[in-house]
Amino acid sequence: AQKVTQAQTEISVVEKEDVTLDCVYETRDTTYYLFWYKQPPSGELVFLIRRNSFDEQNEISGRYSWNFQKSTSSFNFTITASQVVDSAVYFCALILTSTGNQFYFGTGTSLTVIP
Amino acid sequence: GAVVSQHPSWVICKSGTSVKIECRSLDFQATTMFWYRQFPKQSLMLMATSNEGSKATYEQGVEKDKFLINHASLTLSTLTVTSAHPEDSSFYICSAWDQKANYGYTFGSGTRLTVV
Lengths: 115, 116
Hints:
Chain A has strands spanning 3-5, 10-14, 19-21, 24-26, 32-39, 46-52, 59-61, 64-69, 74-79, 88-96, 103-105, 109-114. Chain A is 0% helix and 54% strand. In chain A, a hairpin with a 6-residue loop joins strand 5 (32-39) and strand 6. Chain A starts with a strand and ends with a strand. Chain A is mostly beta strands. By secondary structure, chain B is mainly beta. In chain B, 0% of the residues lie in helices and 53% in strands. Chain B has no helices and eleven strands. Chain B has strands at residues 4-7, 10-13, 19-25, 32-38, 44-51, 57-58, 67-73, 76-81, 90-97, 105-107, 111-115. In chain B, the strands form two sheets. In chain B, strands 2, 4, 5, 6, 9, 10 and 11 form a seven-stranded mixed beta sheet that branches. In chain B, strands 1-3-8-7 form a four-stranded antiparallel beta sheet, with no helix packed on it. Chain B is globular, with a radius of gyration of 13 Å. Chains A and B meet through strand 5 of A and strand 4, strand 5 and strand 9 of B.
């Protein structure tokens, strides 16, 4: 069975602090995609990154960075120098191409950045 | 990029009435669309997979007679919540696959349904 675990339910940080959101996934498939989405209070899902299972290269985009480690089945997300606008719920998700492109979402981490 | 338009963004209805939510792919054809439901402070759960021209596939525990899905064209899928009850109040969001998009999957902006 497929599963995505985000152990951190809520995190609060003071502005300008760095914060890492954890994501651990389970699957027996060898071909899959991992995603991170941001969900602000308005509800829409904002795409942040997609990573396929064959690409373990870490990625940096501005203040955002992602660490993908297949050995530990983790896909962690770090925000550097957090800002108030980063406050949102963040979801990690998994897609298996074998199951018709259905998303398996984690339970989300609610991040609050305090000014 | 690929855009999925979802309407309405919010709706309040009386208990016992039906509500239709539309999901349109604006600049691509979506043979498959997905419908998710999200209760407050919870994750998104897949309700059903909508396939153009055929019956939807529902996840276990989702009542197909209550949540009617129609995917009559390559750009439109609709979810109708029939005989809505307060427990159906939730955030409903659709997703479509566009093979030409950078990351393939596009979500609608969601519909917040409140049944009173």
